[in-house]
Amino acid sequence: MSLSVDVPAGEALSALSRFRVEFYDCLYSRADALFELTDAVLCAEGPVKTLVELCLAVEHRRGHGALYAALDRGWLEPKRLRRTLAGLPLPRAADGRIVLAVDVSNWLRPDAPTSDDLLFCHVYGRGDRKTDRFVPGWPYSFVAALETGRTSWVALLDAVRLGPTDDATAITAAQLRDVVERLIQAGQWQAGDPEIWIVMDSGYDVAYLSHALTDLPVVLVGRLRSDRVMLRDPGPVRSGPKGGRPRRHGGVLTFAKPESWHEPEVTTVTDTTRYGKAEARAWDRMHPRLTHRGPWLEHAEEELPILHGTLIRLKVERLPGDRDPKPVWLWCSATAATPADVERWWQTILAKAPTPAAAARLTRRRLQSLLRQAGRLRGIEAEADRIHEVFHREYLHQPPQVEEAFGQQATALLRQLEAACTNADPGKLEMIEASGC
Questions:
Q1: pTM for the model
Q2: How many domains are contained in the chain?
């Protein structure tokens, strides 16, 4: 587990100690070897390419035979581990609510053709979309509790592997239900608390998920493709001379055709330091047209519901990397939104972490000062050189469309260093920097 630097040191160490004890209790076979193997993976310097490297780590005090035996015959109880994660201190928004995110991340295994249940995973290439590839691997669906502000800290709560025959939407609905129910059982949410937000990208059927989780205290916010349409309510019922069934849908709002838009119920304009002026328009009680396809096949004999929500169009003034700021469309399962609600929804969706370029601007002298203020006593110059070299590695500086995704780990380290510097005594910092260190 990892805790944000905002948590007091005493509380963080206490929570970490409790988690280590509870995690050890989740290991039912070869517990000692698996526990030390976990420590070795977390404490290893750089990526682990072979299992033999873990045997040489200080944290792994057993031989390589114990390592392979633990992986072959060890046993971890996943349900108990999930309950343990749900009971840990969770990050919360300013109003005290829990914000969850769900996404799929691929574990690529191109060199393991005999592994079971491999799928072709979509991998974005450098430059344009023509360089995209499909690589054999295992897709995993992750659910995590999000921190607020510009940070990559998250509290991972669940992970499920998607198999070749799995319906991703059905698996996601069941996974989210299990996570929310575990949080309620752990006392993380109680009656009267703000509803839990769940945010997701455009690859999810947010309307179906909102219908599947309608009995839970959740609000779903998802990004939509720019080629979608939404429908209005039909308006007052009018009886024609021939009678007939009343209309279920009203006019169509086409995202790509501004002439089809009606006056939004809410309009907000927010000045941001990173994106410039951000304008959000929100239309209330908009619903998608559902068809008996995909997850709705189970309702073939039923009349499909009308799922009302709030449609939001967000337009920013600029993007990092001088990219063209295309509008972002969001749909939220809540209705009757206030301007404050609309702002919170789109701010939750947008990733606001700094890019690797910000890390590369730190000099060795600055890194040495930050390490001293963070409490480092030995090997400061070597550690500063190592961090400086990492921040300038090529894989951290990708094309703009993927740079921010690769910058998450650098962002977490930067935040710790900057927090240590900010909390330090300014006079002492000036003396250290003036000394030429």
A1: 0.77
A2: 4
